[in-house]
Structure formats: C-alpha cells, structure tokens
Write a structure and sequence with these properties.
There is one protein chain. This protein is about 80% helix and about 0% strand. The protein is built from four helices and no strands.
C-alpha cells in the first residue's frame, strides 16, 4: 500500500514536469492542480468504477450501505489528493520555476556604490 501511495506522488510530480515542458506558459497554480488532480483521480477511477457497477445491488439491499461506501470513497479520494498528489506536484512546480529564474548577483555590501 505504501509503495502505491509513493507511486501516486511520483506520478503527480512527473505530470507536473510534463506540463512544465509541454506548456511552459501555463500558470503555476493551474499546473499544480491539474497534475495533482489527474494523479489522484486516475487510480481511484478503478475503485469508483467497481463501486458503481455494484450500485444497483447495494441500493436494492439498503440505501445506507451505498451512501456509506460512496462517502468512504470520496473521503479517501480527497485525502489522497491533498496529502500525496498535490504536495508532490507543487514541489516539482516550485523547483522548476526557481531553476528558470535568473541568477541574482550576491554581494556582501548593504548598499551598492554607483560610479558615474
């Protein structure tokens, strides 16, 4: 299970890198949310598909089990996105944007002398 969660974080970072390379003009916030959202939703789409394929039988037995199962899937989806996918995409986006920034000249002086 832990390896799977680490793979989701790596997938999120890889998607952020791919979006940085393919669409360099995309805003950082959009890139982070898109990469994190895709990385969090794609693995969970299998769970949602399996759950909704059994939805008719669960609703016939009782609505409580269906709603409880759906709530558990949604909560796990949000936690997966917020804890594993989103931070990895944000970290990669920040690192890539910092490397693209121009290097500033460092100086020990508090004020620069202007000659002229």
């Amino acid at each position: 299970m832990l390896i799977g969660l680490m793979l989701i974080a790596a997938f999120s970072g890889g998607l952020a890198l791919c979006l940085h390379l393919l669409k360099p003009g995309m805003a950082k916030r959009v890139r982070t949310l898109l990469a994190g959202g895709l990385a969090g939703f794609l693995p969970m789409s299998i769970a949602f598909g399996g759950f909704f394929s059994q939805a008719a039988e669960m609703r016939a037995d009782g609505n409580d089990e269906f709603m409880l199962g759906l709530l558990a899937l949604v909560v796990f989806q949000v936690v997966l996105w917020a804890v594993f996918a989103l931070p990895a995409a944000w970290w990669v986006t920040e690192k890539l944007d910092r490397s693209a920034a121009p290097n500033l000249i460092e100086t020990d002086e508090e004020t620069l002398a202007i000659e002229g």
